[in-house]
Design goal:
This protein is 35% helix and 23% strand. The chain contains seven helices and seven strands, in the order H-H-E-H-E-H-E-E-H-E-H-H-E-E. The longest helix has 17 residues.
Length: 199
């Protein structure tokens, strides 16, 4: 199972998603029945790509997917959930408290308005097409940092469509498939790495 010792907390989070998040319209009414297959396990896959002890930003966090899932699996990370909508950030604060995630911070803002902070990794799921996502995420990354975008079947095409933006930033991108140990169809992640700091 993907969650190991974090499974009890993952079950608590699944309960919050299938009740509170659905009741408040943060997740659609049909999502409650497929929380594990469509959301939790899919999001868990990206955790294997995050370096140890990284600072991580979850862009457009919504209900905390994938940021909270990754934080549950990787307590070594410093996670910032970035979400502009007040009702969603209220839910995220409740989840962080209920799950006792003391290395997770919730920030109510748009990614493009966050200033003065840089991260090793930016996560994104269902936020924007990749060319737009690069515009949002690259300014938030440290030199040598990475964007990890859960993209599904569209990942390869979106990466090809982003060639101009990647070249302008001096970044490189690739499609990775994660979660093979527990997913029938591994998660597709577009991984974009920025240039390292010059010596």
């Amino acid at each position: 199972m993907a969650f190991g010792s974090a499974l009890p907390l993952a079950r608590r989070y699944a309960e919050l998603l299938s009740t509170t998040a659905v009741d408040r319209g943060i997740l659609g009414p049909r999502e409650g029945a497929r929380i594990w297959a469509r959301h939790l396990l899919n999001c868990a896959a990206v955790a294997e790509l995050v370096p140890d002890a990284a600072s991580v930003a979850d862009l457009g966090s919504g209900a905390g997917l994938p940021g909270i899932v990754v934080a549950l699996l990787r307590p070594d990370l410093d996670m910032v959930l970035i979400e502009p909508m007040r009702r969603r950030t209220a839910f995220l604060h409740e989840c962080v408290a209920a799950l006792r995630l003391d290395r997770v911070e919730v920030v109510q803002t748009r990614a493009e308005q966050l200033t003065g902070r840089r991260f090793d990794v930016a996560l994104a799921r269902a936020v924007a097409p990749l060319p737009r996502l690069l515009t949002l995420s690259l300014p938030l990354l440290q030199p040598g940092g990475s964007l990890l975008a859960l993209k599904g079947a569209a990942g390869t095409a979106e990466l090809a469509a982003s060639a101009t933006e990647l070249a302008a930033a001096g970044a490189r991108g690739e499609v990775r498939h994660c979660g093979r140990a527990w997913l029938r169809h591994p998660a597709t992640v577009v991984a974009v790495t920025t240039p390292p700091r010059r010596p």
